[in-house]
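Box 3.1 A note on notation
Throughout this textbook, protein chains are presented in two layers. The first layer is the amino acid sequence; the second is a token string describing backbone geometry. Keep the layers aligned when reading.
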Amino acid sequence: MNSLNREMIIDGKVIGRQQPVYIIAEMSTNHGGSLTRAKEIIHAAAECGADAIKLQTYTADTLTLNSSLPHFQLTDGLWAGQSLYELYEKVAMPWEWHQPLLEEAQKANITLFSSPFDRSAVEFLEQLDVPAYKIASAEIIEVELIEAVAATGKPVIISTGGAAIGDIQRAINIMKAHDNPNLCLLKCTSAYPAPYDSMNLTTIAHLAQWSGCPVGLSDHSLGISVPVTAVALGACVIEKHFMLDKSHDTADQAFSLDPSEFAQMVQSVRQAAMAIGQVDYPSTTRMQRAIYAKCDMPAGTILSRENIRTARPGGTIAPRHFNDLLGRVLRQNIKAGECLRWEMI
């Protein structure tokens, strides 16, 4: 395989530059340890207009070591004051929830897939036959993980936050080596929340041209302005963290959207995509002028400034031909207000 596909399909929906923007609601830790809330999030995401809901499949042991050494401790940011192991153990979604959540997504008519974080998670998700895989930004250097998802032959979405161009190329090479051309890359800034001046959204167009595959945005900024801007710059996928209520205390609360905000983002993204349209220079509009008869005129009348003029709305003969008509003779009778046509002269 020499190249990646410019479009790919997840659960019947085509993803690509000329297709409707594919919108992913990231549940992440916002289930808050409640299966009931997780199911409610799925239905809320569907009602907001998301195309997909995404989970994360890991355990504390698959991500880190249970160690008290200093470099395993979080000392700043949203999650300061605990170790990596403590954080992941607290927020991880139980694997036995995946099947009932998949069934709930089917009821809600929304696609569900997940981000695995090691081979065991891929094997587990394959048993559930999820339709696609998402690789988190930090895992783009995890070669065995990318090999595992590439080998499934299913569409793969990879976030690029913190990745050098060589890391992205390596991931692409792995996809090609497994003869899997269905890759989408997401521009991402790995900060939580991400400052606006760190987004560098012009990277989207460069990444799309360089890779030849669909490119989108995984967004951790506040609000909805960055996703809308990203769509204007060519993003064909938007991923945004989603929660039921901002009052819920979750690890991702600070940079997640609630249903009202998410629905507004979906609407704004759809409107931005429609407004982009295509290259178009319309030849005429009704707000332009044409040449009209100022009065009733019989055949044989010589046209002059006294009996013709330009006026709205636009019509057959454009104003630039006004001087060409002066001194010409009518072939037929015309009435006042009639729009001149060449066959009349």
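The chain has two domains: 8-276, 281-345. The chain has a mean pLDDT of 95.
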